[in-house]
Amino acid sequence: MAAVETKEKINEKTEEAVRPSLWARYQAFTHDVRRGFIAEWTVTIILLLFATTALVQAFVIPSASMEDTLLVGDHVLVDKLVYAPDGGPSGAILPYRPVRRGDIIVFRYPLDIKEDYVKRAIGLPGDHIRLVNDQLVLNGHKVNEPYVKHIATGPDPYRDNFPDAAPEFGVMPRAIEMLEHDVVNGDLVVPPGYIFAMGDNRDDSADSRYWGLVPMENIEGTPVIIYWSFEAPTADLTNGNIGFDHIMDVITHFFTKTRWSRMFKLIRGYPLH
After folding, report:
1. 80, 119, 208, 229: the active-site residue
2. Are strands 104-108 and 141-142 parallel, antiparallel or unpaired?
3. N or C: which end of the chain has fewer CB within 10 A?
4. What is the pLDDT of residues 234-267, one digit of tens each?
């Protein structure tokens, strides 16, 4: 079986403020959000004024599981407001909406909620999912996924033909339980209250195929913009304490290792039907 990530952590980074020059790009973002006039302006103002709050959080991507959509070293702002529960009067004015197929989601890793993961939501409750030779089949229809990256040089039965092929080494007990209870006629049927998620780097992603479904209550938000991107090894980004070597690397190579073309790039989901 191809190598699969076993640790993918998104380290939280605190930023003091978001530069006013982002105004035009956030306007473009809110134009596409499709959550109404009030929702658009709410998201815009929040993202401009706050970098680390209960509503917006700064994260850094430490693994390659979402390449080429998100690269190792991408620093992103996550909208934590979008999926908040909408009970009570706040639901009438705040831009809540349910998770959609194709959304990029940040969530607490089900096997260790102290860790944050980022993947793409593929299946919602009631959806039927299978992979046939790497091709996603959703509710009986082949799905176009232009964002998917394949890097494997050879086949892997379980990875490429989920859930039809027998699980192999690296599949967690929680995923085995999913296969035993939620597979019907060769399809994984997503149960109520859960999301099936996979990485865009489909051949090198530890995702729902390997550790099971994402509980809805674990979902924290969706990344909306890359505010900085810096080439750094995963080891530097998964270190809970920022190391001296990493600090010196940033100081010394800020201009040469910053991916300037990714600065202020908006992150959008891709609708799956």
Report:
1. 119
2. unpaired
3. C
4. 777 766 656 677 788 888 989 999 999 999 999 9
Listed in sequence order, the residues at least 6 apart from 31 whose beta carbon sits closer than 8 Å to its beta carbon are 40
Of these residues, 9, 63, 65, 149, which one is catalytic? 65
Q: Give the fold, CATH level 3, of 11-266.
A: Umud Fragment, subunit A (2.10.109)
Residue 172 has phi, psi (to 5 degrees) of -75, 155
Examine the residue annotation and report whether 65 is marked as an active-site residue of this protein: yes
Cβ contact 254:66 at 8 Å? no
**What is the value of pTM for the model shown?**
0.78
pLDDT, one tens digit per residue, over 108-166 is 999 999 999 999 999 999 999 999 999 999 999 999 999 999 999 899 999 999 999 99
Reply yes or no on whether 142 is catalytic: no
| CA–CA distance, 270 with 273 (Å, rounded to integer) | 10
